[in-house]
C-alpha cells in the first residue's frame, strides 16, 4: 500500500505550492472579524477585493472556507483549520519582522505617553532631546489608557502607583516620583495683597477645578495638609488633565496637577504654586521589553531612559507669590 509522506517544508516545491500571501492575509482578517466588510476596512481595500481574494483562495485549495449566511461569514471546518494556521504563522512572521526592524538603530523608537504629559512636558524638550541623542528618531503617540506594551510600540510612559502590574517579558523602570500641588493664575485677587505663603485653609473658599481621570487628587492633597476634603468647593470638572490646565490658565479656578506638567507655566509666570508640591505614592515609569527575551529591545532604549530620568529629576522651578 502506498504511504503518503508529508512534503519537506524546506523544499522549493512546497513553497511554490503555497497560495498567494495576500489571499491568506485577507482570509485571516476576514476569519477574525467574520466579515468581509470589516476586513476590507482593516486592510484599507475594497469589499470586492477581499471577496475576490477569498474566492481565489477557495478555488486554489479546492474547498469552501466560509458559509455565506446573510451579511456575515461563518467558517467551515476547513476554514477553522486554515484560520488556526494563518493566525499562528502570520502573527509570528509579523513579530519577527518587527523585531528585526527594532534591532536597527535607525528605526524609529515609538513611545506612548499620556496626552497631557506629551503636550506640556515632552514637546517643549524635543530640541534638547535631539541635541542629546542626535541618532534617535522618536515617534510620540498619546494614550491615556493604563496599558502596557502593545504591537508597534517600543516603550510606554505612564504614572503608576506601586505595586506595578506588567505583562510577562516586560521591565518597568521608575523615572521619578510624582509631586502634585494647586496652581492658579498670578493675576487673580483670590489671595489678596499678601506676599506671604497663604495658609492651606485658604483653598477651602476658592473654586477648585477637578478631573475625572484623577478624582482623588484634591482629597489626597488635603489629607497631607490636615484638611477635611468635605469642605472643598468644587467648580468645573473636566475629562482630561490637559483641559483642566487650560481652564486654570484662563482663570476659571484653581487646578491641581503634577509639577512636571506646569514647569514651563511656572517658569514664565503664567501660573503660580503658592502652596508648593507634595510627593504622592505614584511614580512616572517607563515600560520596555525585557532585555534578552523574544521581543527585541530598541538599541536606543537605555539612552532614552537615562535621558528621561535626568530631565525628570532636574529640580523644577516653583513660582510662588512675588
Automatic annotation (TrEMBL):
<dbReference type="Pfam" id="PF03466">
    <property type="entry name" value="LysR_substrate"/>
</dbReference>
<dbReference type="InterPro" id="IPR058163">
    <property type="entry name" value="LysR-type_TF_proteobact-type"/>
</dbReference>
<dbReference type="InterPro" id="IPR000847">
    <property type="entry name" value="LysR_HTH_N"/>
</dbReference>
<protein>
    <submittedName>
        <fullName>LysR family transcriptional regulator</fullName>
    </submittedName>
</protein>
<dbReference type="Pfam" id="PF00126">
    <property type="entry name" value="HTH_1"/>
</dbReference>
<dbReference type="InterPro" id="IPR036390">
    <property type="entry name" value="WH_DNA-bd_sf"/>
</dbReference>
<dbReference type="InterPro" id="IPR005119">
    <property type="entry name" value="LysR_subst-bd"/>
</dbReference>
<dbReference type="InterPro" id="IPR036388">
    <property type="entry name" value="WH-like_DNA-bd_sf"/>
</dbReference>
<keyword id="KW-0805">Transcription regulation</keyword>
<keyword id="KW-0238">DNA-binding</keyword>
<comment type="similarity">
    <text>Belongs to the LysR transcriptional regulatory family.</text>
</comment>
<feature type="domain" description="HTH lysR-type">
    <location>
        <begin position="19"/>
        <end position="76"/>
    </location>
</feature>
<keyword id="KW-0804">Transcription</keyword>
